[in-house]
Amino acid sequence: MKPSAEKLYAACDHTWPPAAWHDYGPWMLREGRGGGKRVSAATACAPPQELDIAAAAQAMRRLKQRPLFSIRQDDERLDAQLAAAGYEIVDPVVMYTLPIDRLTDRHIPPVTAFEIWEPLAIMEEIWQQGGIGAARIEVMRRVQVKTAIFARWRDRPAGVAFAGVHHDICMVHAVEVLPHQRRQGVAVWMMRRAAFWGAARGARYICVLCVVKNQAANALYRALGFEEAGRYHYRALLEQGK
Question: Which of 139, 93, 113 has its CA nearest to residue 195?
Protein backbone atom coordinates (compact mmCIF):
# COMPACT_ATOMS: atom_id res chain seq x y z
CA MET A 1 0.00 0.00 0.00
CA LYS A 2 1.43 3.38 -0.99
CA PRO A 3 2.10 5.95 1.74
CA SER A 4 -0.82 8.12 2.82
CA ALA A 5 -0.91 11.85 2.21
CA GLU A 6 -0.37 12.43 5.93
CA LYS A 7 2.75 10.28 5.89
CA LEU A 8 4.09 12.21 2.92
CA TYR A 9 3.45 15.55 4.64
CA ALA A 10 5.51 14.33 7.61
CA ALA A 11 8.31 13.08 5.33
CA CYS A 12 8.40 16.42 3.57
CA ASP A 13 8.69 18.30 6.88
CA HIS A 14 11.63 16.10 7.92
CA THR A 15 13.45 16.05 4.58
CA TRP A 16 12.90 19.75 3.79
CA PRO A 17 12.59 21.34 7.25
CA PRO A 18 12.12 24.97 8.28
CA ALA A 19 14.63 26.74 10.48
CA ALA A 20 12.11 26.50 13.34
CA TRP A 21 8.57 25.36 14.12
CA HIS A 22 6.31 27.53 16.29
CA ASP A 23 3.13 26.25 17.94
CA TYR A 24 0.65 29.11 17.80
CA GLY A 25 -2.85 28.20 18.96
CA PRO A 26 -4.41 25.99 16.28
CA TRP A 27 -1.50 26.62 13.91
CA MET A 28 1.94 25.29 13.21
CA LEU A 29 4.02 28.20 11.97
CA ARG A 30 7.20 27.55 10.02
CA GLU A 31 10.10 29.95 10.12
CA GLY A 32 11.63 29.76 6.69
CA ARG A 33 14.38 32.40 6.73
CA GLY A 34 14.15 32.82 2.98
CA GLY A 35 14.02 29.10 2.20
CA GLY A 36 10.84 29.26 0.14
CA LYS A 37 7.13 28.58 0.54
CA ARG A 38 7.41 24.99 1.70
CA VAL A 39 9.35 25.97 4.83
CA SER A 40 7.45 29.20 5.46
CA ALA A 41 3.77 28.23 5.23
CA ALA A 42 1.49 27.75 8.23
CA THR A 43 -0.66 24.63 8.58
CA ALA A 44 -3.76 24.09 10.69
CA CYS A 45 -3.53 21.68 13.62
CA ALA A 46 -7.18 22.15 14.67
CA PRO A 47 -10.35 23.55 13.06
CA PRO A 48 -9.63 27.31 12.95
CA GLN A 49 -12.14 30.08 13.45
CA GLU A 50 -11.97 33.00 11.06
CA LEU A 51 -10.33 35.31 13.63
CA ASP A 52 -7.49 32.81 13.96
CA ILE A 53 -6.43 33.56 10.38
CA ALA A 54 -5.74 37.21 11.15
CA ALA A 55 -3.79 36.28 14.28
CA ALA A 56 -1.68 33.76 12.37
CA ALA A 57 -1.01 36.36 9.66
CA GLN A 58 0.23 38.82 12.28
CA ALA A 59 2.47 36.16 13.81
CA MET A 60 3.99 35.41 10.40
CA ARG A 61 4.66 39.10 9.82
CA ARG A 62 6.48 39.20 13.15
CA LEU A 63 8.71 36.45 11.72
CA LYS A 64 9.30 38.80 8.75
CA GLN A 65 7.33 36.51 6.44
CA ARG A 66 4.33 37.24 4.31
CA PRO A 67 1.13 35.50 5.42
CA LEU A 68 1.12 32.12 3.70
CA PHE A 69 -0.91 29.00 4.42
CA SER A 70 -0.48 25.42 3.18
CA ILE A 71 -3.82 23.78 2.39
CA ARG A 72 -3.68 20.03 2.79
CA GLN A 73 -6.07 17.14 2.48
CA ASP A 74 -9.33 17.72 4.44
CA ASP A 75 -8.62 21.46 4.81
CA GLU A 76 -11.66 22.44 2.70
CA ARG A 77 -13.19 24.68 5.37
CA LEU A 78 -9.95 26.56 5.94
CA ASP A 79 -9.50 26.88 2.18
CA ALA A 80 -12.91 28.53 1.90
CA GLN A 81 -12.21 30.86 4.83
CA LEU A 82 -8.92 31.98 3.32
CA ALA A 83 -10.55 32.55 -0.07
CA ALA A 84 -13.21 34.72 1.60
CA ALA A 85 -10.45 36.69 3.35
CA GLY A 86 -8.79 37.50 0.02
CA TYR A 87 -6.09 34.83 -0.06
CA GLU A 88 -5.37 33.47 -3.53
CA ILE A 89 -4.25 29.99 -4.58
CA VAL A 90 -0.54 29.68 -5.29
CA ASP A 91 1.39 26.72 -6.75
CA PRO A 92 -0.82 23.62 -6.50
CA VAL A 93 1.48 20.64 -5.90
CA VAL A 94 1.17 16.92 -6.69
CA MET A 95 2.78 14.39 -4.33
CA TYR A 96 4.05 11.30 -6.17
CA THR A 97 5.18 7.98 -4.78
CA LEU A 98 6.63 4.73 -6.14
CA PRO A 99 7.95 1.52 -4.55
CA ILE A 100 11.67 2.19 -4.45
CA ASP A 101 12.66 -1.14 -5.99
CA ARG A 102 11.00 -0.03 -9.22
CA LEU A 103 13.97 2.30 -9.73
CA THR A 104 16.75 -0.01 -8.56
CA ASP A 105 16.24 -2.62 -11.29
CA ARG A 106 18.86 -1.19 -13.67
CA HIS A 107 22.53 -0.42 -13.26
CA ILE A 108 23.48 3.22 -13.61
CA PRO A 109 26.06 3.82 -16.34
CA PRO A 110 29.53 4.74 -15.05
CA VAL A 111 30.26 8.43 -14.47
CA THR A 112 26.60 9.38 -14.81
CA ALA A 113 25.15 10.11 -11.34
CA PHE A 114 26.94 10.35 -8.01
CA GLU A 115 26.02 10.71 -4.32
CA ILE A 116 27.88 13.70 -2.88
CA TRP A 117 27.64 15.61 0.35
CA GLU A 118 28.79 18.42 0.84
CA PRO A 119 27.67 19.85 -2.52
CA LEU A 120 30.42 20.87 -4.91
CA ALA A 121 30.62 24.46 -6.10
CA ILE A 122 29.39 23.44 -9.57
CA MET A 123 26.34 21.80 -7.97
CA GLU A 124 25.47 24.99 -6.12
CA GLU A 125 25.90 26.92 -9.37
CA ILE A 126 23.42 24.64 -11.15
CA TRP A 127 20.92 25.04 -8.31
CA GLN A 128 21.44 28.79 -8.41
CA GLN A 129 20.56 28.84 -12.11
CA GLY A 130 17.29 27.11 -11.22
CA GLY A 131 16.45 29.60 -8.49
CA ILE A 132 17.68 27.46 -5.58
CA GLY A 133 20.01 29.75 -3.70
CA ALA A 134 21.91 29.81 -0.42
CA ALA A 135 18.81 29.85 1.81
CA ARG A 136 17.56 26.61 0.27
CA ILE A 137 20.99 25.03 0.58
CA GLU A 138 20.67 25.80 4.30
CA VAL A 139 17.37 23.89 4.32
CA MET A 140 19.26 20.89 2.97
CA ARG A 141 21.94 21.18 5.64
CA ARG A 142 19.30 20.83 8.38
CA VAL A 143 18.24 17.34 7.23
CA GLN A 144 19.57 14.44 9.29
CA VAL A 145 19.79 11.67 6.66
CA LYS A 146 20.63 13.28 3.34
CA THR A 147 22.66 13.35 0.17
CA ALA A 148 22.96 15.40 -2.98
CA ILE A 149 22.98 13.85 -6.43
CA PHE A 150 25.29 15.18 -9.13
CA ALA A 151 24.79 14.11 -12.75
CA ARG A 152 27.14 14.32 -15.69
CA TRP A 153 26.24 13.70 -19.31
CA ARG A 154 28.59 13.59 -22.30
CA ASP A 155 31.45 14.42 -19.93
CA ARG A 156 29.80 17.66 -18.82
CA PRO A 157 27.95 18.71 -15.66
CA ALA A 158 24.26 18.06 -16.26
CA GLY A 159 22.08 18.24 -13.16
CA VAL A 160 21.62 18.09 -9.42
CA ALA A 161 19.06 16.86 -6.92
CA PHE A 162 18.72 16.46 -3.16
CA ALA A 163 17.35 13.46 -1.24
CA GLY A 164 16.50 12.75 2.37
CA VAL A 165 15.11 9.72 4.19
CA HIS A 166 12.41 9.75 6.87
CA HIS A 167 11.32 6.33 8.14
CA ASP A 168 10.65 4.27 4.98
CA ILE A 169 10.35 7.20 2.57
CA CYS A 170 13.12 8.65 0.42
CA MET A 171 11.97 12.11 -0.63
CA VAL A 172 13.66 13.80 -3.58
CA HIS A 173 13.77 17.60 -3.78
CA ALA A 174 15.38 20.35 -5.83
CA VAL A 175 15.76 18.44 -9.10
CA GLU A 176 17.49 20.70 -11.62
CA VAL A 177 18.87 19.86 -15.06
CA LEU A 178 20.83 22.39 -17.10
CA PRO A 179 18.77 23.56 -20.11
CA HIS A 180 21.21 22.23 -22.73
CA GLN A 181 21.27 18.80 -21.01
CA ARG A 182 17.51 18.26 -20.85
CA ARG A 183 15.50 15.60 -22.70
CA GLN A 184 18.42 13.16 -22.54
CA GLY A 185 17.44 11.10 -19.51
CA VAL A 186 19.54 12.99 -16.95
CA ALA A 187 16.69 13.37 -14.45
CA VAL A 188 15.88 9.67 -14.77
CA TRP A 189 19.42 8.66 -13.79
CA MET A 190 19.36 11.06 -10.86
CA MET A 191 16.09 9.58 -9.61
CA ARG A 192 17.55 6.09 -9.96
CA ARG A 193 20.68 7.09 -8.05
CA ALA A 194 18.51 8.56 -5.29
CA ALA A 195 16.55 5.30 -5.19
CA PHE A 196 19.71 3.20 -4.72
CA TRP A 197 20.87 5.57 -1.98
CA GLY A 198 17.48 5.55 -0.22
CA ALA A 199 17.06 1.78 -0.43
CA ALA A 200 20.46 1.32 1.22
CA ARG A 201 19.07 3.34 4.16
CA GLY A 202 15.90 1.35 4.58
CA ALA A 203 13.49 3.30 2.40
CA ARG A 204 10.71 1.32 0.75
CA TYR A 205 9.22 4.19 -1.26
CA ILE A 206 10.68 7.03 -3.28
CA CYS A 207 8.60 10.19 -3.42
CA VAL A 208 8.76 13.54 -5.14
CA LEU A 209 6.73 16.77 -5.18
CA CYS A 210 5.90 18.59 -8.40
CA VAL A 211 3.98 21.79 -9.07
CA VAL A 212 1.01 21.16 -11.34
CA LYS A 213 2.13 23.75 -13.91
CA ASN A 214 5.43 21.93 -14.57
CA GLN A 215 4.05 19.70 -17.29
CA ALA A 216 7.40 18.27 -18.36
CA ALA A 217 8.32 17.11 -14.84
CA ASN A 218 4.87 15.66 -14.19
CA ALA A 219 5.10 13.70 -17.44
CA LEU A 220 8.56 12.41 -16.48
CA TYR A 221 7.47 11.13 -13.07
CA ARG A 222 4.37 9.45 -14.48
CA ALA A 223 6.45 7.82 -17.20
CA LEU A 224 8.68 6.38 -14.47
CA GLY A 225 5.62 4.83 -12.86
CA PHE A 226 5.03 7.30 -10.02
CA GLU A 227 1.46 7.48 -8.80
CA GLU A 228 -0.28 10.46 -7.29
CA ALA A 229 -0.67 10.10 -3.52
CA GLY A 230 -2.12 13.49 -2.64
CA ARG A 231 -2.04 17.19 -3.33
CA TYR A 232 -1.72 20.49 -1.54
CA HIS A 233 -1.62 24.15 -2.43
CA TYR A 234 -0.84 27.47 -0.83
CA ARG A 235 -3.01 30.48 -0.10
CA ALA A 236 -1.32 33.87 0.00
CA LEU A 237 -2.24 37.55 0.12
CA LEU A 238 -0.82 38.65 -3.19
CA GLU A 239 -1.99 42.28 -3.21
CA GLN A 240 0.26 44.69 -1.37
CA GLY A 241 -1.25 46.19 1.76
CA LYS A 242 -3.62 43.32 2.54
Answer: 113
